[in-house]
Design goal:
Length: 473
């Protein structure tokens, strides 16, 4: 996991340099997974060529014991196995069932959220984000996906003839649209990082406050695994991204051009909403506000992020003693060892962009916490990341990170932490004077970072609140 977020920068540089070296006139970007889509978007922003994306289609839904299962179910099942609800043999059976073939994970994780964003931006053709990767009961590429890929190639050439570049499509107004789309579907908190990074490449500033402001104005219209029984395939069957744009039309600027001609308004006008239970109306949402909230307080002066659509009502407000860990492995061992108690706040620090390095994704301990039945009584707070596959009271991206002298570095076991998501607050019950006194004796832990790119990354990467991008080199 140390390498995953840094790989975004490598992907961006690789695509950019390849396109420049070969003098390409336009791009068709084939991208599906978590960091490949944002990396390619960053490269396309630098190059500003006519660009069309094709995402690789959804993995088929699996079935185990008469229930539909997807990849997010596996991580939670580890906690269930630890509790004795299922055996290790059954865990292996579920694992095989939940990953039945190629394609994007059929949950609203980072990959699916990124593919939805591509389509909602008008960078991939309508329907792409929710097409199946394979034919039913087969591993052959789905004919509809092959047809769409051919059409995308034609549209890339037409975009070149029209002179429509990426920056014509991804405008400040389009970025605000994308925030609302992510908020409306309870998408991955990783999008906070990736859209900020894209905005930086375009020369725009995307503030954390905009996520919260737009989230308060945008109702939650859809929710998918692991936060609900619905899969992303259900989203496609209900009308997919075009239907979502139709629902959100009063809140969006749809008069923006697409990479394939016309505007998003035309895409929304043609949409059919096939299942209003999956994509809810604006006046009958699942929740009055969006799926991502930004918290601040004396533990997060520069902000922290939580996927509120995955938090139960019982944990919207929580107060409890800190259990402090300096790395992911330690909290995971504590969970699996049965040493976590109801009421605890698990603090995992030194996992930020520099401290990790690489801002590891703590989705596994978060899922184990859910699987062990602790998500209604235990919270997790970290300067690392979580996944779109995460649910429960898991607060990430705490800034400044501990390795840079952020307040998490001052915490000790037993300190009382208060989380108030409706009030957007994250605080520890310590005075400013006490926090400052503790930090006077603080020195950052010495981590052995292997020579090479990770060491370079740790020296140059910026704050999560600004997208975890490189500063001036």
């Amino acid at each position: 996991m140390h390498a995953v977020l840094p790989s975004r920068e490598v992907i961006a540089a690789s695509v950019e340099l390849t396109a420049r070296a070969y003098g390409l006139d336009g791009l068709v970007c084939l991208a599906s997974c978590d960091k490949i889509v944002p990396g390619m978007l960053m490269a396309a922003a630098r190059l500003n060529l006519p660009t069309v994306f094709v995402s690789g289609g959804l993995m088929a839904e699996g079935e185990w014991r008469g229930e539909r299962v997807v990849t997010s179910d596996i991580k939670e099942a580890i906690g269930r196995a630890r509790r004795g609800e299922i055996t290790l043999r059954q865990l292996r059976q579920m694992e095989r069932a939940a990953c039945p073939g190629p394609g994007v994970c059929n949950m609203m994780g980072t990959a699916s959220t990124m593919c939805v964003v591509l389509e909602a931006a008008g960078l991939s053709l309508p329907g792409n984000a929710t097409l199946p990767a394979t034919e039913p009961g087969s591993r052959r590429v789905h004919s509809a996906l092959l047809d769409l890929a051919r059409a995308a190639g034609r549209q890339a050439v037409e975009s070149l003839e029209r002179g429509v570049t990426l920056r014509d499509v991804v405008t400040p107004s389009a970025l605000r649209n994308l925030i609302r789309v992510v908020q409306a579907i309870g998408g991955s908190t990783n999008l906070v990082l990736h859209l900020a990074a894209l905005a930086t490449e375009l020369g725009y500033e995307l503030r954390l406050e905009e996520w919260d402001e737009l989230g308060r104005q945008t109702p939650l219209l859809a929710r998918f695994k692991p936060a609900s029984p619905h899969t992303v395939s259900d989203f496609g069957r209900a009308g997919g991204v075009p239907a979502l744009l139709k629902r959100l039309a009063p809140l969006l600027d749809l008069d923006v051009p697409t990479a394939f001609g016309g505007t998003l308004a035309e895409v929304a006008a043609r949409a059919v909403i096939a299942n209003p239970d999956v994509i809810r109306p604006l006046d009958a949402p699942l929740a009055p506000t969006g799926g991502i909230a930004v918290l601040r307080g004396n533990l997060a002066p520069d902000g922290a992020v939580v996927k509120v659509s995955g938090v139960s009502p019982a944990m919207m407000r929580h107060r409890g003693p800190a259990r402090v860990f300096d790395r992911e492995e330690d909290v995971q061992e504590c969970l699996l060892g049965g040493r976590v108690h109801p009421g605890d706040v698990l603090v995992v620090r030194y996992e930020g962009p520099r401290g990790g390095p690489g801002m590891r994704e703590l989705s596994l301990p978060a899922a184990i916490m859910v699987g062990m039945g602790l998500s209604d009584s235990v919270a997790m707070v970290t300067d690392g990341r979580f996944s779109g596959a995460t649910r429960g009271p898991c607060i990430g991206h705490v800034c400044p990170e501990a390795a840079m002298g952020g307040p998490l570095a001052a915490l000790r076991d037993g300190d009382i932490i208060e989380i108030d998501i409706p009030a957007r607050a994250l605080n520890v019950h310590l005075s400013k004077r006490e926090l400052q006194a503790r930090m006077r004796d603080w020195t950052p832990p010495q981590k052995e970072i292997p020579p090479g790119f990770l060491r370079f990354y740790a020296r140059h990467v910026g704050a999560a609140s600004q997208g975890a991008v490189f500063g001036p080199l």
